Amino acid sequence: MIRLWFKSGTPWVWLNAAAVSTCLIMVIGVLGLIVVRGAGHFWPAQVVQFGYQEPGREFQTIIGEHVDTSITPAAMAKSTGHIMSDDEDTLVQYLIKTGNRDITGTDFRWILERNIKQQQSPAELMVVERREWGNFYGQLLAVKENGKIIAEGDQAWPTVQTRIDQALAVFEEIAHLEKKEVGAINYSLEKLRLEQKKLQLENRWDSAAEQRVAAEKAELEIDYKEYQTQLIELYRQIRRDSLVAKTETGNEVEIPLAKVVRIYQPNTMSLFDKIGHYGIKMIEFLSDEPREANTEGGIFPAIFGTVMMVIMMSIIVTPFGVIAAVYLREYAKQGFITRLIRIAVNNLAGVPSIVYGVFGLGFFVYILGGNIDRLFFPESAPAPVYGTPGLVWASITLALLTLPVVIVSTEEGLARIPKSIREGSLALGATKFETLWLTVLPMASPAMMTGLILAVARAAGEVAPLMLVGVVKLAPTLPLDGNYPFLHLDRKFMHLGFHIYDVGFQSPNVEAARPLVYATSLLLVLVIVGLNLSAILIRNHLREKYRALEG
User: Fold this and answer.
1) What secondary structure does DSSP assign to 114-159, as a single string?
2) Count of the separate structural domains present in the chain
3) Which of 77, 266, 295, 329 could make an SS bond with 91 (beta carbons 3.0 to 4.6 A apart)?
4) pLDDT digits over 221-252, tens only?
5) Is the Cα dihedral 366, 372, 375, 380 positive or negative?
């Protein structure tokens, strides 16, 4: 009976089902962990005030957020040097985010539960999110303007909120002037410098060209001086106000409002207040630029860079992959050489991605990009234009990496088209090219989209090759802006995958970076899912459109 049962194949069906179920449970578990840890990062946590006293030491006050709890068995705790009494079975430790890194040198601290003498959450405790040094935890005492106290006590809180709103408005205006207006002027001045150098290299630099360039420079310098005057006034305004706060040790600290992003009291916030705060933080995460070595702020440049690179990669890889597949299936003579090419294409799909990165750096960047610079941008020498890693080379490298996937999927789609459809089209007088272009390729388009979906999924998550051909930790400007030619293919860019690697493994503050790793991972998954869903919808539409013809 057992032998017959095995011969029937039922055990292998159950084994396959168990393996698939296990994989699904693991995937769902990982995604669940990412969702919980990533999405929960933006929720305003309670700020707790601990009365703490270690044996033989003075009583102290510790203020911060309870981040994590560690429970260690007594035997293991003794082996690590902790003193345990006979009635203690476990050692319980709390990880507290104390902030105030500029004062204490660290913003996380482990404390022992047995040494906690008091624990409460006073309403007056506040969190100050700063542009530098992370969060500040303490109590608000007063608000100053030009070094003079203008509000304290009960009036301090509404006054500081008003002044922060004013400071944020001024900060946004400063950012706009520096990045947009002054940045555009600097870009135009650099273009004029390169134009002058190019004319000199071509022996076309004459008095007329010199007068024209000088006139344009003079206009730009006038605008530059006007913007500088505005910036000086704005900086004077933003440096005017500050707040005075008391730390956990009782010391008073003055914090300029120019360095404050927001201030709030989580212990007094209602559920709706926390939901509103959560929404604001989410929007900031998706739309702002990073700060504090990528451990604070938003990741919009990384989102933008990832999506743009994937779109450019898709535009490059699709026509090349389709043309190669059409040639191999429809035009090439089926023989040893064709089989050898197919084997090579299949083997290329298994080449480690870092090899593509090294090839892209050596061939595309140094050889192709270097020659482009010598031929078309000699005036930029010795600074490279296309002879350095950038968006275009990263997109081409990933297009080469994903090309085998598109070729194989397109070939499979072409092979599924019935021979009778081709013969019918030819019998009606159509040429082979017309049959291919108007009949075969549209019917094979769902398979092409399947290849593109697989290519997008792989390219969006790749990191190793991008580290060599264009991705950076922090890009000063986006590849797309308002300066001609608007899309700057030579610029370096940020990427969500590299951002996760950088924050998770290169950050000097591991504990502060850990929640952001989960949040960025969740966003990367959502970006990939969104790109894939878009391609799947297009594929399903095409499949329904040509299903009748396939029948």
Assistant:
1) GGEEEEE--TTEEEEEESSSSEEEEEEEEEEETTEEEEEGGGHHHH
2) 3
3) 77
4) 999 999 999 999 999 988 899 999 999 888 89
5) negative
